[in-house]
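Before any further analysis, we paired sequence with structure tokens, yielding the entry below:
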Amino acid sequence: MRETERGVASLLGARDAILVPSTGFALRTALVAGGAFKPCSVVIGQVCARSSWAAIASVGADPVVVPVDPNTLTLDPDAVGRAVDSRTGAILVDNPWGVAADTPGIWSRVDIPVIENGATATGSAFAGRQVGAMGEVGVVQFGSGIGGGRPRAPGAFLVTDDPNLRERIYRSTVGVRVSARTTAEAVRTFQGWSLSRVRAQAAAARAAVEGAGLATLVGGPERTMATPWIPVRLDADAPRPAGFIYRPHPGVFIVDGPAMAVGREQGVQLVTPECGVPGKAADRAADQLV
């Protein structure tokens, strides 16, 4: 297992990676190890993963909701800087649907822990830096497949460059048992995971969306995608994918799954090869790019 953890750290350009049972457990551990728990607050984006919101609630911290950049759906670094005060214990950065947040820009504006939830964006990058290795601690998972999204990956990895934080994480996970089955599946999944392939699949899916001429892509040229689900602003006559949305707080959208709509307020929906983009065509194009 330690060899796989070293492989994950090397892939992301980080010092250490630690296998834990799940994304939720990893995020909660990161918040506790970083000192972000009751009675502090945690800054989170208006568009966030359910696991991020649940992790904040699990440590008893208060969420401070910050607007996202409408062009990327990720945290706006300037808005984060304005939201931080003496009660803020951490910044929890989501990377929705593989769109990498400007985590370095956020970290440059604060002097508190910046935690990345990169579970749905493993392999994506911002300005050449990999999601999961741009903050003080990151969370990543490895999965495969392109049809409707990745299957749920076994376990999750906490990633950090900070040796002191690494020790606090280890102390926080003493007595936590990662099952032999989860460990074996995590090793097997990582060994079968290919960075070049997931990026090629993402590029093929984006090209298919662009070729359909039905939508405007969300993101920017400095962001490298590694997921097959594509956040877009659909044209008026484009087909709409079905999905669900959770709203635990006014103005907060929590997405779960590869075909979820963000909501009319953001004007963005999610398209996958199963929602108007031919999956087999995307797979063939990916094969040609690898």
